[in-house]
Write a structure and sequence with these properties.
The protein has 287 residues and is an alpha/beta fold. It has a single domain (45-277), classed as LigB-like (Protocatechuate 4,5-dioxygenase, Chain B, 3-Layer(aba) Sandwich), CATH 3.40.830. The protein is built from 9 helices and 11 strands. The chain has helices at residues 19-31, 60-76, 115-121, 130-133, 143-149, 165-179, 198-213, 217-226, 234-243, and strands spanning 50-55, 82-88, 98-99, 104-106, 109-111, 127-128, 155-160, 184-189, 194-196, 250-258, 268-277. Strands 1, 2, 3, 6, 7, 8, 9, 10 and 11 form a 9-stranded mixed sheet that branches. Strand 4 (104-106) and strand 5 form a beta hairpin. Helix 6 packs across helix 9 and helix 8 (217-226) runs antiparallel to helix 9 (234-243). The N and C termini lie far apart (59 Å).
Length: 287
């Protein structure tokens, strides 16, 4: 354990506690039939179109293959200097949007925090609160995938509690200002419907996904609250969409799935892998 590092809270439950077994579990997400179907390529594009993504955070057995669709994209492009991971406050442990300023440990090793971006984000309602992160899984489970696909990842964890839309929109503006002119990939960690029949999950999740694809933060917040969709990451996803509002980005759904695809169950949890990227340049005309 690196001195002063935040200890893993869900190693041995959400993912293996042994480093070798964890690497194998990450690879299994890529090769799974619900995943990309293959390991990431060994060569990267010198460019990067990927700006942000929504990625699930359940136990790897259930959501790892869905998350792998996003991380395969990360692996194919120029690495970002920093990854900002917007997480959920499942336990109500924080008093507001909470940063962590210390390295985070997983069985694959420590991931350092970008101290400069932490300082830029520490404004208004956003503060450092290490205790708020102690038990939370939503950011932690992203790190082994990041460690696998990025050569030397640097990240910033920002836990977002649920609150009124104007408060989340304000945090989104702070994120936008802090990341302007920085090489940052933003991830919102979120599962979708929780413990509902598969067809209900499909119907409700489609409402939330369509709002995300429309890049409409207010619409997402409204439909999730109106339809009582149990999307645990509504706060970080609202912040992500607010931070990127007005930018020329295209959003696309890479894969939707649910826990019942892994084993039979009457009540499932839904997952989606969604990316936001700069549009493809027009093809060169044939000569």
């Amino acid at each position: 354990m690196t001195a002063g590092a935040r200890a893993p809270a869900v190693a041995g439950t959400f993912y293996p506690a042994d480093g070798r077994a964890l690497a194998a579990e990450v690879e299994a997400g890529f090769t799974d039939r619900r995943g990309p179907g293959e390991l990431p390529p060994r060569h990267r594009s010198p460019e990067r179109r990927l700006v942000a993504a929504v990625v699930p955070h359940a136990g790897y057995r259930y959501s790892g293959a869905i998350a792998a669709h996003v991380y395969r994209r990360v692996a194919t492009e120029r690495p970002p200097a920093t990854v900002l991971v917007l997480g959920v406050d499942h336990y109500g442990a924080g008093v507001g949007p909470a940063l962590s300023a210390r390295p985070w440990q997983t069985p694959l090793g420590p991931t350092p925090v970008d101290a400069d971006l932490v300082r830029a984000l520490r404004r208004g309602p956003v503060g450092i609160d290490e205790r708020a992160h102690a038990r939370e899984a939503s950011i932690e489970v992203q790190l082994p995938f990041l460690e696998y696909v990025l050569p030397k990842p640097s990240f910033v964890p920002l836990q977002i509690p649920f609150g009124p839309f104007p408060e989340l929109e304000k945090v989104g503006r702070l994120v936008r200002e802090a990341t302007a002119d920085r090489d940052v990939l933003i991830l919102a960690s979120s599962d979708l419907s929780h413990y509902v029949p598969p067809e209900t999950a499909r119907r409700l999740d489609r409402l939330a996904i369509d709002a995300i694809l429309a890049r409409d933060a207010a619409r997402l917040y409204e439909v999730v609250t109106r339809e009582q969709i149990s999307m645990c990451g509504i706060a970080p996803t609202t912040v992500l969409l607010s931070a990127l509002a007005g930018l020329p980005l295209a959003a696309s759904l890479l894969r939707w799935g649910h826990s019942g695809e892994v084993e039979p169950m009457d009540s499932v949890v839904g997952y989606a892998a969604i990316v936001l990227e700069t549009p493809s340049p027009p093809a060169a005309p044939l000569k």
